[in-house]
Amino acid sequence: MKYVRIFFTTLAILLIITIAAGYILFRRENTELYSLDGSSRKNVPGSFVQLSDGVTHYELAGPDTGKLVVLVHGFSVPYYIWDSNFSRLAQQGFRVLRYDEFGRGFSDRPDKVYEASLYRQQLSELLSKLQFQSVYAIAGVSFGAAVASDFVVHNPALVTKVILVDPVYPELSSSSSPYPEWFARYKMAISPDDVVNGQLTDLKYPAQFPQWAHQYKVQMQYKGFRNALVSTRFHYGPFDMIMSNYQELDSLRKPVLLIWGKEDKTVPFKYSDSLRRVLRTKYLPVDDAAHLPQMEKAALVNERIISFLKERS
Known about the structure:
The protein starts with a helix and ends with a helix. It contains 13 helices and 8 strands. With 313 residues, it is of the alpha/beta class. It has helices at 2-29, 83-91, 116-129, 143-154, 170-173, 181-190, 192-200, 212-219, 225-235, 239-251, 271-276, 293-296, 298-310, and strands spanning 47-51, 54-61, 68-72, 95-99, 135-141, 159-165, 256-261, 282-286.
């Protein structure tokens, strides 16, 4: 019995030390130090609107009479991911709307499950608040392509055209996480540099965007960012739903433009062929670009998008 007590006492001490070390590490590395509120947004460009699940940060440009083009960002980078395209489309006479999805940028981080319906409802309410009755085109990059496709499938009469840029592909995401959800949150908290550096791999030439990491770190200061990303990864929806949405989008017979960087390492270029087997599209493969061709080859991509938007449906 003596040795059993020693064993369990030692085990308890080791457990306490491990928990204490883990907590100290969390406190040292945790970047989420502030609550996102009006003072945080005081000097932020763009506009804000209260929706049922929280405040949404958005920006509108272009003539009031222009056809509406909605730009949906990806998994974690906010609406500035469209900086290279937003003004150019507005200059061409389109009314352009971009916004931060909940949990990202300067939009609220509601303490909710980040499933597909949350993203769908956010965009529906945003359009309603801004009094838009229809969407001429919706464009989504990476994860934003899944959000855009889901929105169109659930609102087919609302949207005329669709643009998908290096869209998330279900086959890549079908394997379950090696960690439970709580540990995924903890791991992200103690390795913030990994999160930032991971964004640089989306670019073939990150040196051409020297502010990219600094821009990304801003949103990491505000509580709820980690929860939004991890909850989305675990709960957005079954990944066969994403493929089902692509297939349903095809059945709607809407004009779709697919753009893909040939050197994409995040969602490899080979999946462009796989997607085009289930979704008929117009197609722009982009040389010398990785996961974000709308940034790295902005002039080429902008002109193709503008041409697509001006084509008669």
